[in-house]
Design a protein that fits this description.
- The protein is an alpha/beta fold.
- It has a single domain, classed as Alpha-Beta Barrel (TIM Barrel), CATH 3.20.20.
- The protein is built from eleven helices and twelve strands.
- The chain has a seven-stranded parallel sheet with strand order 1-6-8-9-10-11-12. Strands 2-5-7 form a three-stranded mixed sheet. Strands 3-4 form a two-stranded antiparallel sheet.
- It is globular.
Length: 347
């Protein structure tokens, strides 16, 4: 599947939703939603699902026309990367929300766990089938990982967070298997809170991740990052992002095939990737913290060559973080330049 001569390309997960679909100003004015946020949508029911499908087709066509090798659905139907799955599970209180401290240090409404977490029916399988039906390329779909969902919830039922994480893992496991059955080539678990809560991650994250992949057949990926550039700055951070991860080498013990890392914006030292010798590396090469469209010359020497020389099985290129809060008009240009840099890397 990863048959590009040098570096296959893909997006992390989200792609900017068009302005006719989402209220971008309202989205940018708040923390990423952990509970449902229906007021973000500009298109009302009963036309919303059709509008989301139209936007998904646009995202697929953009990627294919730009030469992206592994195509995603752009998460066009979601209000955030995590809340669609996290709020669709049984065991979540339907009457009230909980509260948890976000990675910005601010309180945020989150799902309140009031009973056993169970996945009673497929959640993203229909989206997976739609993506598979409308692209001839290898396709990738994303899910929030069990550790991150545990950190983005208020526990009002389980004796401890590890127990909660294990039931989230079982729910994710059932969903992953359905996505592969629907024809997806790569399923990616989004686990940004491995970095944000490294101490807790050391206690039970690998156990939860491996449980989520038990008996799974197909290529699996895991994305870890420092958070959205816009959220990082709006939270009052004045300095750059850290240049190293607090939880990364530990992923060598996981059953994940591909490790996806944000690298461009923090200026990551790729030397640490040598500690993941059995993993394929998905290396983030576009810096979404700046509005300018970077040129292949800027991307090529400092990122692609570093990312492709770390000694792992293979490397893929992707934007440095999800782009749902980025401006839609710039995204195709940024992907085009990133793809051009990949092509130059092979010359």
């Amino acid at each position: 599947m990863f048959d590009h001569p040098i570096l296959p390309t893909t997006i992390v997960g989200s792609y900017p939703q068009p302005d006719w679909l989402i209220d971008r100003e309202r989205l940018k004015a708040s923390l990423p939603p952990r509970v449902r946020a229906e007021t973000l949508w500009r298109v009302p029911e009963p036309w919303l699902a059709d509008a989301q499908e139209a936007a998904t087709l646009m995202a697929i066509r953009d990627q294919e026309e730009l030469g992206i090798d592994i195509v995603g659905d752009g998460e066009m139907r979601r209000e955030s990367y995590s809340n669609r799955l996290a709020t669709a599970l049984s065991g979540i209180d339907t009457e009230k929300h909980g509260t948890a401290i976000d990675r910005t240090g601010n309180a945020n409404p989150v799902p309140l766990v009031s009973g056993p977490i169970r996945r009673v029916a497929p959640i993203e399988a229909q989206d997976a089938a739609f993506l598979r039906r409308h692209s001839t390329k290898p396709v990738k779909l994303t899910l929030p990982g069990p550790f991150t969902m545990t950190q983005q919830a208020e526990n009002g039922y389980y004796p401890d967070l590890r127990s909660l994480a294990m039931d989230y893992a079982d729910a994710v496991n059932a969903e992953v298997k359905d996505l592969f059955a629907a024809g997806v080539d790569v399923v990616q678990l989004d686990e940004p809170y491995l970095q944000a809560r490294a101490a807790e991650a050391n206690a039970y994250a690998i156990e939860a991740i491996n449980r989520a992949l038990d008996g799974v057949g197909g290529t699996t990926a895991l994305h870890i990052c420092f958070g959205y550039a816009m959220v990082h700055h709006s939270a009052g951070a004045t300095g750059p992002k850290p240049k190293a991860y607090d939880f990364l080498a530990e992923l060598e013990a996981s059953a994940i095939d591909v490790i996806s890392i944000e690298a461009a914006q923090p200026g990551l030292d790729p030397a640490i990737l040598a500690e993941l010798p059995t993993k394929t590396i998905m290396y983030g090469v576009l810096d979404l913290s700046i509005p300018e469209v970077e040129t292949p010359v800027a991307i090529l020497p400092s990122r692609l060559r570093e990312g492709s020389g770390v000694g792992s099985d293979a490397a893929l290129a992707h934007p440095a973080a999800s782009s749902e809060q980025a401006h839609n008009s710039r995204c195709p240009s940024r992907l085009r330049e990133g793809r051009s840099a990949v092509d130059k890397c092979g010359q």
